[in-house]
């Protein structure tokens, strides 16, 4: 994809970012390389450098409003198969969250919410690593959906719940 200055993109790890520059720099090697310089929208004090030749691996266009609606409408049917072994589940969740796939992230959120309710109703405690992965998936979804929808990321869960109830 050919992004340019002032475009807004999604970074696989750092979420919604604005392209603030494209420069030839000598950072990782002795040879100058072209880099996209990004500022994360929700962490404006940060700056990221993404090699232009690796941009397709690390950046993507933002989701559209229509795609958000379609994904939310699918939420009741999506999830992931629960992995009983905690270490294996942690590895799988970590990999899935890194993928940045909206459907996968919403599946993680849906499944972990259900599991947290199930575990809580039986008087047990929800595992802290599962809570961490739930928070990470929610942060990614809430920030990108919030940006695209023009609402505060903290209001995205209410938006999703209202849409799911309406459907």
Features of the shown structure:
167 residues; alpha+beta; Thrombin, subunit H; Methane Monooxygenase Hydroxylase, Chain G, domain 1; 2 domains; five-stranded antiparallel beta sheet; 5 strands; globular
Seen as an oligomer or otherwise, the chain set is single chain
Topology order in helix (H) and strand (E) letters: EEEEHEHHHHH
Cα-based radius of gyration, to the nearest Å = 18 Å
**Distance between the first and last residues' Cα:** 35 Å
Which percent bin holds the helix content? 40-55%
Please give the largest β-sheet: 5 strands, antiparallel
> Into how many domains do the coordinates divide?
2
Mean pLDDT rating: 92
Give the neighbour order of strands across the main sheet: 4-3-2-1-5
Tell me the fraction of residues in β-strands, as a range: 15-25%
Number of helices: 6
CATH class descriptor name of the largest domain: Mainly Alpha
Could you name the CATH homologous superfamily of the largest domain? CarD-like, C-terminal domain
Tell me the CATH topology of the largest domain. Methane Monooxygenase Hydroxylase, Chain G, domain 1
Structure class: alpha+beta
What is the CATH architecture annotation of the largest domain? Up-down Bundle
Which spans of ≥5 residues are poorly predicted at pLDDT below 50?
A: none
Number of strands: 5
Q: Specify the overall morphology.
A: globular
């Amino acid at each position: 994809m050919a992004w340019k200055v002032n475009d807004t993109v999604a970074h696989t790890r750092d979420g919604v970012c604005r392209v603030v520059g494209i420069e030839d720099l000598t950072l990782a090697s002795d040879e100058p390389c072209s880099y996209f310089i990004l500022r994360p929208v929700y962490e404006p004090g940060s700056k990221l450098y993404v090699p232009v030749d690796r941009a397709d691996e690390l950046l993507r266009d933002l989701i559209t409003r229509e795609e958000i609606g379609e994904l939310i409408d699918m939420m009741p049917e999506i999830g992931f198969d629960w992995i009983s072994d905690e270490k294996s589940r942690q590895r799988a969740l970590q990999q899935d969250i890194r993928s940045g796939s909206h459907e996968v992230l919403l599946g993680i959120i849906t499944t972990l919410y259900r599991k947290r309710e199930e575990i809580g109703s039986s008087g047990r405690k929800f595992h802290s690593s599962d809570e961490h992965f739930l928070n990470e998936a929610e942060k990614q979804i809430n920030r990108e959906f919030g940006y695209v929808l023009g609402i505060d990321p903290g209001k995205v869960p209410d938006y999703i719940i209202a849409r799911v109830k309406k459907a």
